Amino acid sequence: MPADFDPTAPPWGSPAAWCEANQTVDHLIRLHRQELDRAVALALEVQMKLESIFSLIDELCMLTCPRCPDPCCLTAKVWINFQDLLFLHLSAQKIPPAQMMSDLKETCRYLGAKGCTLPRIVRPWICTWYCCPSQTANLNKMPPAIRENFTHTIQAIKNGRKEMEAEFIRVISG
Ligand code: SF4
Ligand code: SF4
Q1: Which residue is closest in CA terms to ligand 1's atom 6?
Q2: CA of 134, nearest ligand number
């Protein structure tokens, strides 16, 4: 473990560490690209499932976020983790220019005057699946088929991300 390793700080918080992490993942993918077909396919499946729930998430946000008295992004301690980083690279997304924060005392750098400035697809997974109590209450008023599909898709994305990570590690360790 490096001497300056801080388990309470987000990973790759400095510009240099962010750059190095992205270059390393990119290099590994180029090096093993032919064996990573399955990992890429899993990432694209995750992308498709994510995109299938964005309109519902947008709807839930529109109902409560614009008038929220205590916006969650102001205090959220979230960042791009290893699965997020892999997903971004394997599904060829535009990589955000920096980690969400370099220090837990900071506010997410992507929070703008009108909410998140990042496209949903590149936000940390936790920012997508988190449903605050007001959103959960509105979701619970929706037809059962919509709720069930949402819950099912969230679980499928969780499983797909795990599988994608396991496959990537299997290939690069081989
Ligand atoms: S998700 Fe919930 S807590 Fe966060 S800004 Fe929207 S309404 Fe507020
Ligand atoms: S990435 Fe966007 S949604 Fe996530 S905490 Fe930051 S501002 Fe909020």
Answers
A1: 65
A2: 1
- Is the Cβ atom of 79 under 6 angstroms away from ligand 2? no
> Which residues pair with residue 112 across a beta bridge?
115
Distance 115 CA to ligand 2 centre (A): 8
Work out the pLDDT band at 127, boundaries 50, 70, 90: very high
Query: From ligand 2's centre to the CA of 75, what distance in Å?
Result: 10
In this structure, which ligand is nearest to the CA of 138?
Answer: 1
Say how far apart CA 100 and CA 110 lie, in whole Å: 7
Residue 4 has pLDDT above 80, yes or no: no
**28-59 as b/e, with b when 16 or more CB fall inside 10 Å?**
bbeeeeeebeebbebbbbbbebbeebeebbee
CA-closest candidate to residue 57, choices 93, 49, 69: 49
Q: Is the CB of 127 under 6 A from ligand 2?
A: yes
Cα-to-centroid distance, 108 and ligand 2 (Å): 6
Q: Which residue matches tokens 């001497």?
A: 3
pTM score: 0.94
What average pLDDT does range 66-90 have in this prediction?
96
For residue 97, CA distances in Å to 34, 109, 122 come to 27, 10, 11
